[in-house]
Amino acid sequence: GGRTRVLSDGNRIPVLGLGVWQVPNGPDCVNAVRWALEVGYRHIDTAQAYGNEESVGQALRESEVPRDEVFLTTKFHPRGDDPVEQARRSLRRLGVDQVDLYVIHWPAGGPTWAWSGMERTRELGLARSIGVSNFSAAEVDSVVAASTVPPALNQVMFNPWHRRTRLVEACDRHGVAVEAYSPLGTGRYLDDPTVAEIAQRIARTPAQVLLRWAAQHGLVVIPKSTHRDRIAQNAQIFDFVLSAADMGVLDGLDQTSGTDQAQEHKWW
Ligand code: A2P
User: Fold this and answer.
1) Structural domain of residue 117, as residue ranges?
2) Where is the NADP-dependent oxidoreductase domain (predicted)?
3) What are phi and psi of 109, to 5 degrees?
4) What is the mean pLDDT of each run of 10 residues along the chain (268 residues)?
């Protein structure tokens, strides 16, 4: 349970964060992050590839929430450049001295080539924790084997339809925390009748049911919304518990149970 998880390097990560994928740099992003911080989020997830780090940084400053109370993640866009140099650029755009988590956005060029640069980023104090995203079980194995400091976390698509039990088990074996992106299926699972039935019966919303399900499986979740009421609603997942029966029903929606992949298709 609780609202934070301890990573293998000893740092704590809040279980709930705001994701800002596909939110353009500008007022929509500034508002979403500011509203999230106002309603109690203490974890924001951005990426170099999203192009909105400036807005995230602006909202963080305008919120006046102390920097050390917010867990800030950005992701290295793997294009052959040095992770350290790209981290420095991210820090300038974000207007902070350090991020809490810096992850390789996807395993372009193979799972290990950027890892020593990620470790260097951590040694230099530019990132407190380092991790990966969209890595399969085999790719996690490779990077762990090649590492001095192993990845603290793997961020992957995870929701009842994409449960990836073998990938999650592999991460567990290595002490790699798993973080769920698209926990609402980018919105498309909110009308699902199975989810709706549970939500109605326990007087919660479909989004809350899906987020609670992931958190109750021990994952970190980063739902995206740019609407104030939804951002607030998505944070109310720590005041109820899904029954074992309802967890089982949601588990049964899985279409990826046997897979160790982070994605159905590699789009990079
Ligand atoms: P919007 O940003 O317009 O609020 P995911 O986190 O799985 O990627 O899902 C994000 C999508 O789900 C976005 O399209 C977002 O729309 C929508 N969404 C997020 N939270 C809610 C909610 N509580 N109710 C309805 N739709 C939501």
Assistant:
1) 4-187+218-238
2) 16-253
3) 75, 10
4) 90 98 97 98 98 98 97 95 97 98 96 96 98 97 98 97 95 98 95 98 98 98 98 98 98 86 65
The answer to whether residue 76 is domain-embedded is yes
Residue labelled with tokens 């989004």:
207
50 catalytic? Reply is yes
| Ligand 1 atom closest to residue 227's alpha carbon, by position in its atom list | 4
- At residue 265, the pLDDT reads 60
The closest alpha carbon to 17, from 242, 204, 209, 234, belongs to 234
d(CA 256, CA 246): 19
Q: Which of 52, 156, 184 to mutate to test the pocket of ligand 1 (most atoms within 8 A of CB)?
A: 184
**pTM (two decimals):** 0.96
243 domain residue, yes or no: no
Domain presence at residue 257:
no
**Residue 136: which CATH number?**
3.20.20.100
Q: What would the two tokens of residue 141 be?
A: 């194995």
Q: Quote the pLDDT of residue 264.
A: 65
DSSP string, 68-88: GGSEEEEEE--SSS-HHHHHH
ipTM of the prediction greater than 0.90, yes or no: yes
pLDDT, tens digit (0-9, with 9 covering 90-100), for 153-168: 999 999 999 999 999 9
Binding site membership of 188 for ligand 1 (Cβ less than 6 Å): no
Tell whether 15 is covered by a domain: yes
Ligand 1 pocket: which of 195, 224, 228, 237 to mutate (most atoms within 8 A of CB): 224
* Number of folded domains that form the chain: 1
